[in-house]
Recover the amino acids of this structure.
């Protein structure tokens, strides 16, 4: 029995792309090191909160997500296509359920969490995965007809509009942005025409204008981005403190656990500001190292995706990788002052058991698909 188990363990990893596996392992390993340091800010202020965050991140995220990631390697990838629609519908329903008061709770002015007894999670994390999975299934089904409006643009708008509405109500503008970008990328890879791209651009512009009218704080963030010196003690506080943290790290940083900003000045040091803590403690070298890991993960996944045998597998891998890397790049760019703040976490690293759990679930699907590639190097 033991020999059979060992054989199964080896065989399930035999065809998994080793480069992708190593890159994911490095991101998770260094992510845990960075998280443990950043979470010391909780220990100084509220030890009970520190242990809650630690249990959620390691218990639910790392251990629970790792177990599901491993289990997903045993599945036939066609299951993802077969159940893409019911998975997508379930994710939409769960996302709308956060508006039910006794099933959810509010934090930071947003209602994004479902609370089921001792378990709380963000349905938006499920929705992102379900969205790209169903889009991949749809585009692979319609094939060349994707260039026709009734098979391409119209279904894409419907498939995208319903999740966007569910997220807009919460509100969760960051997830809308990254999910929409991944969706458009998949549409492009499936064969989007220039005409449809221009239509989407007009719709996105109108949508943005509506958002800034209904949500004034969005415009405030944009104005702060272009004129940060005018609101240093209010709206621009996080951006300013992030730049101070990154700059004070200089070349090699202060050292692990020695960040000053995370204890008194930097909001959400273990959350969406964690890249600034990395820069302060590990310097320019550490910051660039993290950026390189995500870049290599993206490039390797692209190489593997082009070797996959069918459109569904290729589109699904691209979609999941873009969700992970796109959000992470946006987070790092916001900390460096390249783009406005969005509140999006750094995948694999930022605090959040739910986010890490579903990042590892996505990774399990990515590694599962990597076994299909026609040629290994």
């Amino acid at each position: 029995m033991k020999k059979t188990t060992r054989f199964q363990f080896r065989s399930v990893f035999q065809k998994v792309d080793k480069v992708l596996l190593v890159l994911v392992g490095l991101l998770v390993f260094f992510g845990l090191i960075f998280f443990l340091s950043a979470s010391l800010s909780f220990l100084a202020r509220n030890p009970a909160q520190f242990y809650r965050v630690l249990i959620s991140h390691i218990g639910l995220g790392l251990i629970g997500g790792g177990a599901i990631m491993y289990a997903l390697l045993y599945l036939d990838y066609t299951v993802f296509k077969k159940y893409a629609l019911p998975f997508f519908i379930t994710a939409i329903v769960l996302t709308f359920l956060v508006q039910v008061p006794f099933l959810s709770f509010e934090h930071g002015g947003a209602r994004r969490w479902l609370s089921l007894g001792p378990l709380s999670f963000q349905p938006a994390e499920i929705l992102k995965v379900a969205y790209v999975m169903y889009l991949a299934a749809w585009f692979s089904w319609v094939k060349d007809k994707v260039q026709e409006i009734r098979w391409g643009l119209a279904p894409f708008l419907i498939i995208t509009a319903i999740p966007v509405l569910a997220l807009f109500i919460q509100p969760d503008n960051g997830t809308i942005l990254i999910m929409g970008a991944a969706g458009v990328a998949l549409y492009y890879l499936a064969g989007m025409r220039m005409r449809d791209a221009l239509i989407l651009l007009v719709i996105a512009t109108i949508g943005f204008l509506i958002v800034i009218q209904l949500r004034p704080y969005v415009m405030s963030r944009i104005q702060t981005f272009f004129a940060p010196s005018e609101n240093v003690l209010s709206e621009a506080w996080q951006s300013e403190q992030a730049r101070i943290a990154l700059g004070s790290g200089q070349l090699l940083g202060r050292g692990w656990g020695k960040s000053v900003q995370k204890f008194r000045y930097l909001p959400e040091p273990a959350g969406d500001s964690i890249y600034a803590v990395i820069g302060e403690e590990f310097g320019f070298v550490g910051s660039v190292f993290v950026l390189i890991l995500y870049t290599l993960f993206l490039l390797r996944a692209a190489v593997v995706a082009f070797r996959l045998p069918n459109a569904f597998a290729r589109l699904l891998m691209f979609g999941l990788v873009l969700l992970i890397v796109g959000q992470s790049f946006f987070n790092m760019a916001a900390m460096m002052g390249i783009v406005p703040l969005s509140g999006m976490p750094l995948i694999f690293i930022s605090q959040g058991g739910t986010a890490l759990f579903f990042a590892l679930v996505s990774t399990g699907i990515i590694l599962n698909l990597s076994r299909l590639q026609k040629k290994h190097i």
The CA atoms of residues 190 and 234 lie 44 Å apart. The longest strand covers residues 110-116. The chain has 16 helices and three strands. The first helix runs from residue 2 to 14.
